[in-house]
């Protein structure tokens, strides 16, 4: 695939941010988030409009949307806040000179998808060329008329929920809406940020993001409805958990395959357990609850510690996932949780689980229809992410050697099928 940059410019909010809103304070979990970009891709089928009209439409609507999401147009100025100075978002446009969108979608190769985002190499690193912008958008135009919109957020202030509501709001503004709900809420009064937590974030990054991105493989797997029902029934037949949710059953299945294929010989002196780290949306569990569209990296995590050398019991694995999440929801305390997270990762091989299957990404209609595919391309560590598709689809990323074993696991493949395509390389 060959891509040519057409233009790069700064998009500022259509209305200046008022003086009393010029400082946005972090919520404690914002401090703990990895300082890097969180890129996503939305693919749209062939359009009848000219690229120039689409370009103007997207820029104007983005400018208006930034008046609601004004921290995205600001810059992080210290360890605890954003200077909402209307610096603006980076807006890049490219022409895909060689490469057909239909073949790209059929192939679903994450390495090819990465060519459509403005970040290269390790996406957790913020390029100095972007001057610490909190938001970078790249619109890729295909010769067939198709469009791929890459939206890259600074992960410190964005989680999956924020990204979903942002693209939904941007699309609503593009279609003429002017009544977007308030998205910027001062959460710092609930759990104030501490700059000291930067050291804990650094420890977390050192322990977790230690893979070479070129050695990471991301693949798509589909869990069909009937198979999910059968999996839940099978897992629910044990003595630890009666009725596992869809997420609990899939997390147990993936964890079991990873445990079964763990290279014990290479890990026996350092890795004693598998740590399943489960993302939890904090908006509904803090007191008082926060609006669902509230901006921020409002995610906490639960850790299910699964010893590698024990016999695999899916019911037990699902129960551990269930128990870890329930404990966090029932007894959420930020300080003990953060320290517990770092301790929970010690001597572990870590797999991150997240479920965005009910988030409104596919409602992002800019006036020419809803997206045909959503993809995340920055999963440069071990991740299993459930996607918002009609059948349950998951993006799973693993180091090459582990993926080679994982994707051949017969037990896993009895419930999930890899997304396959016989299309030639682009």
UniProtKB/TrEMBL annotation:
Domain of life per record: Eukaryota
Tagged with keyword Transferase: yes
Keyword list, A-Z: Transferase
Protein name: Transferase
Organism: Melia azedarach
